[in-house]
Specification:
GO molecular function: aralkylamine N-acetyltransferase activity; N-acetyltransferase activity
Number of domains: 1
CATH class: Alpha Beta
Distance between the termini: 43 Å
Strand content: 15-25%
Order of helices and strands: EEHEHHEEEHEHE
Keywords: Acyltransferase, Transferase
CATH topology: Aminopeptidase
Number of helices: 5
CATH superfamily: Gcn5-related N-acetyltransferase (GNAT)
CATH architecture: 3-Layer(aba) Sandwich
InterPro entries: Acyl_CoA_acyltransferase (IPR016181), GNAT_dom (IPR000182), NSI-like (IPR045039)
Family: Belongs to the acetyltransferase family.
Oligomer: single chain
GO cellular component, one term: nucleus
Radius of gyration: 17 Å
Length: 194
């Protein structure tokens, strides 16, 4: 279920504490955050004001999100195209989301969402930035803010799935792969050989 927009208040990344994650392929990268969000907006790598001045608009609800345009961003980064009806259901079952719209085109250019139990655990999914807009800090902007939104809800064990080629993007944001050598498993149906 999507909640109404939450006013932003970032946290200090120095307050992160590692926990034992699950690490299948694609790699599962996790972090547990024990501190509460701090009230200052200074810890964002790109401020809301800076994003606005560059023509970007932050959204925390699905209002005005064109699912066909979002699907185009998914496809542009190599995700499979998804059935818009299934995307809609997934978003209805999302606990937190953040997307960035480019004002000139009115299209989404960055997106992330999280699901979880609403109390202890959350997993961040579908982190994408349109390739034409990569390198501008938009990926960091969505991750920092979605983590903050989860922390403000009291969720302290935050994990995400990531392709191995982009693990380096998440490490500076406090995520680690396989802390303490812990690995996990994901259920996968294999076709039986006849």
């Amino acid at each position: 279920m999507l909640l109404p927009a939450i006013t932003s208040a970032p946290f200090s990344f120095s307050s992160l504490r590692l926990t034992n994650p699950i690490s299948p392929h694609p790699r599962y990268v996790a972090v547990s955050i024990s501190a509460q969000a701090s009230p200052a907006n200074s810890s964002y790598s790109v401020s809301d004001r800076d994003l606005e001045s560059r023509g970007f608009v932050l959204h925390r609800t699905v209002s005005d999100l064109n699912l066909d345009h979002l699907n185009s961003v998914f496809a542009a980064v190599g995700f499979p195209k998804r059935d818009p009806d299934k995307i809609r259901v997934a978003l209805e079952n999302t606990d937190a989301l953040l997307w960035i719209q480019y004002g000139k085109t009115q299209r989404p250019v960055a997106f992330a969402r999280a699901t979880g139990d609403g109390v202890f655990n959350a997993i961040i999914w579908d982190v994408v930035v349109d390739p034409s807009f990569q390198g501008l800090g938009l990926g960091k902007a969505v991750i920092e803010r979605i983590i903050e939104d989860l922390l403000r809800k009291g969720i302290s064990n935050i994990a995400l799935y990531s392709e191995p080629r982009v693990l380096g993007f998440y490490r500076p944001l406090g995520f680690v792969a396989d802390p303490d050598g812990i690995r996990g498993m994901v259920y996968s149906r294999k076709k039986k050989k006849n």
